[in-house]
Design goal:
The chain has one helix and three strands; from the N terminus they run αβββ. By secondary structure, it is α+β, with helices and mostly antiparallel strands. The protein has a domain at about 5-40. Strands 2-1-3 form a three-stranded antiparallel beta sheet, with no helix packed on it. The two termini are about 25 Å apart.
């Protein structure tokens, strides 16, 4: 992702609320903002390969 692997690891150690998209700490059971119980891990953005066919 970025230049600093330590920062990338910390950035991806959050979980996202499926309802309001708020960031929550790793061990959360429900959203800190709206208290919705359904959370998902943060998605990893992958860089596309250069020179792909169009």
């Amino acid at each position: 992702m970025g230049k600093f692997p330590v920062a990338d690891k910390a950035f991806l150690s959050v979980i996202i609320c499926k309802k309001c998209k708020a960031r929550n700490p790793k061990g959360a059971v429900s959203c800190r903002k709206c208290h919705y119980p359904s959370l998902r891990p943060k998605k990893v953005k992958r860089k596309d390969a250069k020179g792909g066919a169009k």
